[in-house]
């Protein structure tokens, strides 16, 4: 601990500041000596952790709130609008040589390209194709008018090759139009994630144009309301400043519905009010932790009330009362969103836990299988030795049994060769004599000699 010996007041603020700087510099230089047990490694780790936490808090980077995708998608949407318009006009001009009456009946480019692909050669169009025409046009009267116009058309004949090229080009235009619809849905979902209040107030497309023109949502939030009002009309502004004429009243926010609904004398006033609310909404979206569309809806209600006030004279609500209601609703919505996020996080943790448990169980099964295989390998040689011993004994017994079987087969063959009477005698001898297995061969030989003697005697008597 540091004990103060004396206290002397500073003469001026400059001397106090110099003293504080000198003290902080001395602490920084002699920090390792002042704190005991502090190593270089622990100090570097602490510095690194402090730097990471500071930068994380400073940046607050969130993947779902990146506005670069909005800038690119709105630019692509504008380019697609130009290209689709150019290509569909080319299809109209190309197919108009064959069927010019279709241009007057159908005004939409996407519908015209679909009809050109479906009809093909107008001379082949019949009542069978009426259902397909109604599906595309969504009007039975228009479909019937197209059918009648094809019968009395003034267009020229077309070759099959030209028709194939027109159909392929029409299919390309149709695919581009369908892709544009998907891109618009993507932009709507992205704006609801990044800038929900701004999109609820002024619309997704106009809000995306403002973000794209400003460069980012942060830059738009830093702009004052007067800059937001004329954003997109810089050329007219500088021209007016150069010629000392009237400055423009609105820029990109002119495409919103509020300015179009306002009277001519109130357009400038409503554009100024709308720019003010857009600046507030962009700041809320940029710096709020949990983005919600509550503030955007309340700001939109305020603009509607101000528009009604300019037309009818009904006084609108005060801004303070509206913001109090918005804060209460926003806290409730934020709590609900946090609760849902916590539920998702819990479910994610449970799934991760189950996955880890399954992996651990699989590893245990593998270990048990390895142990059993090792035990079988250890016990295997002993069992093999026993089996070998049994096999040798069986092999020793096998030749003796084979010899007995061969002798029995020979006896059966001899019995078949002798007459029936001799077989009877042999049966008697076999019943009288029941010898043991080792004496079988000698007795059989004796029986054979007696039979041979009897045969010799019979042959002599016959002679």
Please supply descriptive tags for the structure shown above.
snoRNA binding; 20 helices; single chain; Helix Hairpins; flat; 463 residues; Serum Albumin, Chain A, Domain 1; mainly alpha
Task: Describe the model.
78% of the residues lie in helices and 0% in strands. Among the domains are: 68-188, Helix Hairpins (Orthogonal Bundle), CATH 1.10.287; 195-316, Serum Albumin, Chain A, Domain 1 (Orthogonal Bundle), CATH 1.10.246.90; 318-375. It is flat and about 165 Å long. It has 463 residues and is mostly helical. The chain is built from 20 helices and no strands.
Task: Give the secondary structure arrangement, pairings included.
Blueprint: H1 13-29, H2 31-34, H3 40-59, H4 68-96, H5 101-105, H6 109-119, H7 130-137, H8 140-151, H9 160-194, H10 196-202, H11 204-214, H12 217-222, H13 225-229, H14 234-243, H15 257-261, H16 267-287, H17 294-312, H18 319-417, H19 420-432, H20 440-462
Helix pairs in contact: 4-6, 4-9, 4-11, 6-7, 6-9, 7-8, 9-10, 9-11, 10-11, 10-16, 10-17, 16-17, 17-18
Organism: Phrynocephalus forsythii
Biased composition (Acidic residues): 368-378, 392-415, 450-463
Region (Disordered): 368-463
**What is the gyration radius calculated from CA atoms?**
52 Å
- Helix and strand composition category: mainly alpha
Order of helices and strands: HHHHHHHHHHHHHHHHHHHH
The first-to-last residue Cα distance is 152 Å
The name of the CATH superfamily of the domain at 195-316 reads Nop domain
Average pLDDT rating: 82
Give the count of helical stretches: 20
| CATH-defined fold name of the domain at 195-316 | Serum Albumin, Chain A, Domain 1
> Which ranges are low-confidence, i.e. pLDDT below 50, for 5 or more consecutive residues?
417-445
Would you state the CATH class of the domain at 195-316?
Mainly Alpha
